[in-house]
Design brief:
The complex is a heterodimer. Chain A is an alpha/beta fold. Chain A contains ten helices and eleven strands. Chain B starts with 9 loop residues before the first helix and ends in a 5-residue tail after the last helix. The chains are: A alpha/beta, B alpha+beta. The complex binds adenosine-5'-triphosphate and magnesium ion (MG). The site of magnesium ion has 4 residues of chain A, from helix 1. Chain A: GO terms for molecular function: ATP binding; ATP hydrolysis activity.
Chain lengths: ~325, ~600
């Protein structure tokens, strides 16, 4: 746990402000059984800060504690120790619920209601006039592309359709802060693209998004910053572009070089004197990074992986 | 609540008295007990998790938050939750059970005819009891599984991330299921009422040939005049009615199978018989206050304890001065058109030796001025084990031979300035006993509307629905579905014999309470021996008395469904007194407040995704 490097890098994200929307301090969750005996240590001393206007990704293999973190931030779980703050307050406070939206990992909706009834029901739990509610419901149904099935009961819906109505439900109150737990599972490629576009659009509207996934490609495209969890421990956190840079390697890209020229460049580089057309750190894919972290973590459990990475230096 | 139960005035019921705590004290104590127990349990559980300091803070915070949360309950959100519960019940299962009820009702309706000896009793007691149970079971199933299912399906996560208060989640569900229960109740009520009317409806014919004309010959003129008709109706649905008509050709047929018919003779000599009359009754009881005199004629708390009965009956010994004295509020208004006082006697008889069982036990009654030494002459009667209507003439013979007042008027002479009159009942047969209770003897005030009585009975049933749903929902906040169902069933089952438990808690405890009995045990004193007098004895007695008070409060905190069950009034054709309805409302209200609060705290302290 040597580095605390990444926090200030968020300032570089154009739309992110310095206002901290989500904060966890030493957040720990131990699941216990009925008798109070310890079953699983799902989350170990997590420190996290998410700022207004950023898209923050939580990445990790199955069972790494992503959903647990989210539930703690939503007040669905009580921390075993440590603290979770949303808008600077205890997440179980009702007042903050006006300002958040949540898409659970599976759609936990009432299957005997139709899509329209579902949105109508959740809409009524918020303080908004009936006319605004109706307008929003129309807009959201349109947005998630379920106009054609809005009167059918959810038990007849396919998985992807349920996901879509779940998303609409999460946005019913036009929230400032949106929790998306694996938003792309169950969606077709087009749906995934739409979901990513939506997340980016939400950011453009100035909203903060906390998104979890194990679909690495999803986060790579959209997240401003990510945190990588493994077995309940924070392994890595930082800006996506920074995390993916490999600092002890250099990549040169050029166009129209002859073989002689290439040879020459090689020599030039050897002499450290040539004019470089393009020189930068090569990027790995998130997948490679992820796998290496997991391997590293399994080899040396309890340690933060690859602590030498320091993106603030770039 | 049966017709046998003592009916207390509002004041006696609510306020503390010499021999009871009164509803108000019980309610306040119950709240205090719940609050202390809740805080204590919360503290202990929380301390195990997070240590005592954190626990103290957590319990305090939850308690403090509850009040502003209560005040910010939004009807719109409760409405939305109610709507959801309603939809769930309707779209998922409740209708199936209701259909079942309709089928059973249809089948039973088939067999409801005036064929049986007492058709109204039979039908009403079957339908009301069956409905009551079916409805309560349905309400348990309805209320108990939804919250656990919500937690298991995790649909509650989505609710919890919306700005909904725990109060609203609980109340919304509660109102939803009470709403569904009420709908079923109303439907059941309407169906039974219609079935009752249609099932019992019948008429008879009269063959003009079989009717005898009654004539009278005027002694002076020698003219014969028709003074009436006599005959018997045809035999339909298992019975027929003899009848006699007056000179105008009108009359009521004899009462048979709990009803009569209006019979009229038409111009052309045929007869018309109306549909059944006086079948569905709601007689209004005018109850008095009872006290007992022992065999020496001295006032006593209760009659002799015959041993095999609950404390409800006092017993008066035959052939002694022992008497049961009823004090009634008396006025002209209680007399009927013939200047008679309609009364009903429901005395129990207890034999110490076998006599002639059929002929009953002889006794007598008389009226007495409460303050003066004037009384009417004793009127003999025979008590059998059944209700008996007595029409007491307004003018009674004076028991003293007083030429200035050979007769005493019930209202003018025997009623005192406060409008009270005393009725004394004694048993004449040596060695036999009457069992008498407050409700054994009463004045029949008037005939109330059966329809409203029926409605009142359903309102009582509705109170039970509210109780059952609330209990079920509270259980389901911390138990899983099947266990909560079991707990609700146990609570319901307990509720139906709660009365005896309460009697036990209120009854005489030989040898005193826990402290006194320990001392007796220590000193090896028999339970019947009095302890030595002294300060310490008083302290011991005081502590024990408080223990019993506590026990009584505790017993009252458990539901007593008998108090909410008025169907026996309707079955026996008695009006349900308004004061009973108000008391029921208060009981249910008190439980409601306590249970909703309990449910709120359970829900609030529960880790929903844990
Ligand atoms: N209610 C629970 N009771 C006991 N253990 C639980 C509970 N919920 C989660 N866990 C355990 O906590 C750990 C973290 O679970 P969590 O659901 O947070 O993982 P995740 O990162 O969201 O995984 P996935 O990618 O599969 O959704 C797992 O080991 C899981 O078994
Ligand atoms: Mg998960």
């Amino acid at each position: 746990m040597a580095t605390t490097e990444t926090m200030d890098s968020a300032a570089e994200t154009p739309s992110a402000s310095n206002e901290i929307v989500i904060e966890t301090r030493n957040l720990t969750k131990v699941y216990r059984d009925f008798w109070g005996r310890q079953k699983v240590r799902a989350l170990k001393a997590l420190d996290l800060e998410v700022r207004r206007g950023e898209i923050f990704g939580l990445l990790g293999p199955n069972g790494s504690g992503k959903s647990t973190t989210m539930k703690l931030l939503l007040g669905l779980l009580f921390p075993t120790s440590g603290q979770a703050l949303v808008f600077g307050e205890d997440p179980s406070k009702v007042s903050i619920k006006e300002r958040i939206g949540y898409l659970p990992e599976e759609s936990y909706l009432y299957r005997f209601l139709s899509a329209r009834e579902t949105l109508e029901f959740y809409g009524r739990l918020f303080d908004m006039p009936a006319s605004v509610r109706r307008e929003r419901i129309d807009k959201l149904i349109e947005m998630v592309g379920l106009k054609w099935a809005e009167r059918r009961q959810l038990k007849e819906y396919s998985k992807g359709m349920t996901r879509r109505i779940g998303l609409a439900q999460a946005l019913i109150n036009d929230p400032e802060l949106i929790f998306l737990d694996e938003p792309t599972t169950g969606l077709d490629p087009l749906g995934i693209r739409e979901m990513k576009d939506l997340i980016l659009r939400l950011r453009d509207e100035g909203k903060t998004v906390l998104v979890t996934s194990h679909q690495l490609a999803d986060l790579q495209d959209v997240a401003d910053r990510i945190a990588i969890l493994h077995q309940g421990e924070l392994k890595e956190m930082g800006r996506v572009d920074a995390l993916l840079k490999v600092r002890d390697e250099t990549q040169i890209r050029a166009r129209g070089l002859s073989d002689a020229a290439k040879e020459e460049i090689r020599q030039v580089i050897q002499r450290h004197e040539a004019e470089l057309i393009d020189i930068e750190n090569p990027t790995t894919t998130l997948e490679e990074l992820f796998l290496s972290i997991v391997r590293d973590s399994e080899a040396r459990p309890g340690r933060r992986a690859r602590v030498d990475r320091d993106d603030s230096a770039d | 609540m049966g017709i046998e139960n003592d009916i207390y005035s509002m004041n006696d019921w609510l306020l503390p008295g010499a021999d009871h705590l009164g509803g108000l004290v019980v309610f306040i104590s119950a709240i205090a007990i719940l609050a202390v127990a809740g805080a204590l349990i919360g503290f202990i559980v929380s301390s195990i998790r997070n240590g005592p300091f954190e626990a103290f803070y957590a319990v305090g915070r939850i308690a403090v938050e509850s009040v502003p949360e209560l005040l910010s309950i939004s009807p719109r959100r409760v409405g939305a939750m109610t709507w959801l519960a309603f939809q769930e019940a309707i779209r998922k299962r409740a209708l199936v059970a209701f259909a079942l009820f309709m089928v059973v009702l249809l089948f039973s309706g088939w067999y409801i005819t005036p064929n049986s000896e007492s058709p109204v009793r039979l039908y009403l007691s079957f339908v009301l009891t069956f409905q009551n149970w079916l409805l309560l079971l349905m309400c348990i199933l309805l209320s108990v599984f939804s919250l656990p299912a919500d937690i298991q399906n995790k649909t509650i996560y989505t609710i919890y991330t919306k700005p909904v208060l725990h109060w609203e989640i609980f109340l919304g569900r509660l109102f939803g299921y009470i709403g569904v229960g009420s709908m079923m109740l109303v439907a059941m009520g309407v169906c039974s009422y219609v079935f009752l009317y249609r099932g019992l409806d019948h008429t008879h014919q009269i063959d003009p040939q079989s009717v005898t004309e009654l004539t009278d010959t005027d002694d002076d003129t020698g003219e014969t005049k028709v003074i009436g008709w006599e005959g018997e109706t045809t035999f339909n649905v298992g019975h027929s009615h003899p009848f006699s008509l007056d000179a105008d050709g009108d009359g009521l047929a004899a009462r048979e199978r709990q009803h009569t018919h209006q019979v009229t003779r038409n111009e052309d000599g045929t007869f018309t018989v109306s549909g059944p009359k006086e079948m569905l009754q709601a007689r209004v009881r005018h109850l008095g206050k009872i006290r007992f005199l022992d065999r020496g004629g001295e006032p006593t708390n209760k009659g002799i304890n015959v041993g095999n009965e609950w404390d409800y009956y006092g017993h008066i010994e035959g052939g002694t001065l022992s008497a049961a004295v009823f004090t009634f509020d008396m006025s002209d208004a209680l007399l009927n058109e013939e200047n008679q006082l309609p009364m009903e006697f429901n005395l129990r008889v207890f034999r110490t030796y076998k006599g002639d069982i059929v002929s009953g036990i002889r006794g007598s009654y008389y009226f007495k001025h409460p303050d003066l030494d004037i009384r009417s002459r004793s009127i003999p009667f025979t008590a059998k084990e059944e209700a008996e209507t007595v029409l007491v003439s307004r003018s009674q013979e004076n028991s003293d031979i007083d030429p200035t007042a050979p007769n005493l008027d019930l209202v003018e002479n025997l009623t005192n300035a406060d409008g009270k009159i005393e009725l004394w009942i004694q048993c004449s047969e040596r060695g036999q006993y009457y069992g008498v209770a407050q409700n054994s003897v009463f004045i029949l005030k008037s005939n109330g509307s059966f329809f409203w009585n029926f409605v009142k009975c359903y309102i009582s049933m509705w109170f039970q629905v509210v109780m059952v749903v609330t209990f079920g929902l509270v259980f389901s906040t911390f138990l899983n579905g099947p266990v909560a169902a079991l707990a609700s069933l146990i609570a319901l089952g307990y509720g139906f014999f709660a009365e005896s438990v309460r009697e036990l808690a209120n009854g005489e405890w030989y040898g005193g309470g826990p402290v006194e009995s320990s001392i007796r045990l220590f000193n090896q004193k028999n339970v019947m021996v009095d302890l030595d007098e002294g300060v310490y004895v008083n302290i011991v007695k005081f502590i024990d008395a408080r223990f019993f008070d506590g026990l009584r409060v505790f017993v009252n905190m458990l539901p007593d469904y008998n108090q909410l069950d008025t169907h026996s009034f309707v079955v026996d054709g008695y009006n349900i007194p308004g004061v009973v309805m108000i008391q029921q409302l208060l009981i249910v209200g008190a439980f409601f407040v306590c249970l909703v609060t309990t449910g709120y705290f359970f829900l609030k302290t529960r880790e929903i995704a844990g």
